[in-house]
Amino acid sequence: MASERPFVSVIIPVYNDPRGIRMTLDAVTNQTYSSEGYEILVADNGSTDNTRDVVRKYAERFPDLVHLLVEDEVQGPAAARNAAIPQAKGSLLAFIDADMTVEETWLEDAVASMESNDWDYMGCNVEIYIEDGKDTLTAKYNQIFGFPIRRYIEDQHFSGTGCLVVRDTVFDEVGDFDERLFSGEDQEFGNRVYDAGFDQHYQPAITMYHPARSSLPELLKKHFRLGRGRAQMQRYHPERVEKPSLLNPRNYLPPHPIRFYQRVTSSASLEWHELLLLFFIAYLKRLSATAGWVYEHFSEDDG
User: Fold this and answer.
1) Among residues 105, 121, 114, which one has the least CA distance to residue 158?
2) Which pLDDT score, from 0 to 100, does residue 1 have?
3) What is the Cα–Cα distance from 300 to 288, expressed in whole angstroms?
4) Closest Cα partner for 219 from 295, 142, 117?
5) Spatial distance between the Cα atoms of 47 and 50, rounded to a whole number of angstroms
6) Nearest-CA neighbor of 218 among 136, 95, 126?
7) pLDDT value of residue 149
8) SS3 9
9) Computed over its alpha carbons, how large is the radius of gyration of the chain?
10) What are the TM regions of this chain, as residue ranges (predicted)?
11) Predicted local distance difference test score (pLDDT) of residue 2
12) Which CATH code is given to the segment(s) 2-211?
């Protein structure tokens, strides 16, 4: 019976992404899990386009299922998720990012995994796919390197929040996401969960789908933000990360060519010119992340 199964709160942060939130809401409103057994909380993070209007239309179509929340004071996905957590009615909180899609059995399978195994914290598999008309080298790079959730959980004790299911009792114990971090809040939260003694698991049987970033400027912008997040992690949580010197040349060197070659050729069959261009993209990505890291350090000094 649906009443005997846990109530689930699906939490989706979104910012200026009307197309992405449509894709995700189409998927999460079409679940085999009873509509009386879950809610969808969309936390808009101060969008300046028509994103909220899109969400409102879904809320009108599914008044008991879809709910719009607004967090426009603090910018960042951590703040958006934190706005939804205290409003969540579920004993299980399932996080998914706007622009991601799932199978119609996603919630059914997630609940079964959490309940049958008595898990507290679960990360799911994420498959990067290339959309029609967007088969660029940047998209191929993104698809190859993607989201190694298993490695994140096993080696670094966290899952990306776009594919995370957590019991509400975990938040009661360790607190919410750190809103001071532009990125890396998923790792910092997961590390607190691990330190508190909760179990963490990877579930490869549940796949969630994320479109590849096909634009190089988009990819570099993302990694600039990741670099800022790394500097903020060093500032606010120095016990968790090293704080190397800005003058260390390793921060500015290209990826190790042999390891890069082995990683790429194990995942895809490419021509030599494509390999060289992918290596160039990887180097630009590293430089962009380093630029964000340096920028954040200078911002700290100015403050």
Assistant:
1) 121
2) 39
3) 18
4) 142
5) 8
6) 136
7) 97
8) strand
9) 20
10) none
11) 45
12) 3.90.550.10
